[in-house]
Design a protein that fits this description.
single chain, three-stranded mixed beta sheet, 14 helices, 13% strand
Length: 301
């Protein structure tokens, strides 16, 4: 494999922690930072060096991956007083895998360009299991030559790495995908709930749907009914997976984009409203497939 240059990694949460480990497994020395020191314990034990802030990471590497919760976090990590762009070296490749507003991705990329650095937006799809298994899909916004420079690193963490076009289009693809995911999860949840109330066995109903025209990722791979599938959040009290609060955030981004482009998204809007209600009911930390349980409780007598 040969000697590899060190890579910076900022944001060692549920997704970022596994992504960083996969870079280590592929022989990349890491310099890591997270605002929560407890998130750095395991990666340090595996051999990563720890920085005190993003600016310190930027001093020591020429490639950085960030995986952060929201647009304000990205702005702070890149543009803050101890942010990456305070000390970034000219020519540094910055890969942001957060899911944020496309306008923020463009803003940060423009600021990086003024410092002589290159910033790509590269949000992911696949969830925690795919992060663990290095089978994520990366949707990468940036010029072709910059995409090629990032691909070697991204290939260590995913199996599908797609150049979506200019900076910001990675985020656009991600929020469109997640809007569809939320809509289909609600549809699957409604359908499974109705079938069960009509006396159908949920495993049998799922089997019929998954060999018929109603088939979807939500029904086949991530079924929201407890016990239909093993090793999915619904069969683990909706723990792990992709949080309802994060799905709500992504749906909010989609609605902001829809408003900005005068695009009619009635089902996306309704999905956003439903997930906001779920968060208000204290379900924000549960996996987004909790939609089934939420809808089931609305119809119980």
């Amino acid at each position: 494999m040969g000697s590899r240059a060190p890579v910076g990694f900022i944001g060692l949460g549920n997704m970022g922690g596994f992504m960083a480990k996969n870079l280590l497994k592929q022989g990349y020395p890491l310099i890591a930072f997270d605002v929560y020191p407890e998130s750095l314990i395991e990666i340090q034990e595996l051999g990563a060096s720890i920085a005190n802030n993003p600016a310190e990471v930027a001093e020591k590497v020429d490639k950085i991956v960030t995986m952060l919760p929201s647009s304000p976090n990205v702005i702070d990590v890149y543009l803050g007083n101890t942010g990456i762009l305070k000390n970034v070296n000219p020519g540094t490749l910055l890969i942001d895998s957060s899911t944020i507003d496309p306008a923020v991705a463009k803003q940060v990329s423009a600021a990086a360009e003024k410092k002589g650095a290159i910033m790509l937006d590269a949000p992911v799809s696949g969830g925690i299991n795919s992060a663990r298994e290095a089978t994520l899909t990366f949707m990468v916004g940036g010029k072709e030559e910059e995409f090629r420079a990032a691909k070697d690193i991204l290939d260590c963490m995913g199996k599908n790495v797609v150049n979506t076009g200019p900076v910001g289009t990675g985020q656009a693809a991600k929020i469109c995908n997640n809007m569809m995911l939320a809509i289909s999860m609600i549809g699957c949840s409604e359908t499974m709930n109705l079938g069960m109330r009509l006396g159908l066995d949920p495993k049998m109903l799922a089997s019929i749907m998954n060999t018929s025209s109603g088939r979807s990722w939500a029904s086949e791979v991530y079924n929201p009914v407890p016990g239909v599938l093993d090793n999915v959040p619904s069969s683990n009290d909706y723990q792990g997976g992709f949080g309802t609060a994060l799905m709500t955030k992504d749906l909010s981004l989609a609605q902001t984009a829809a408003t900005a482009t005068s695009t009619a998204t009635p089902l996306g809007s309704l999905a956003h409203q439903l997930y906001r209600v779920m968060c208000n009911r204290g379900l924000g930390n549960k996996d987004f497939s909790i939609a089934f349980q939420f809808l089931k409780e609305q119809t119980e007598v």
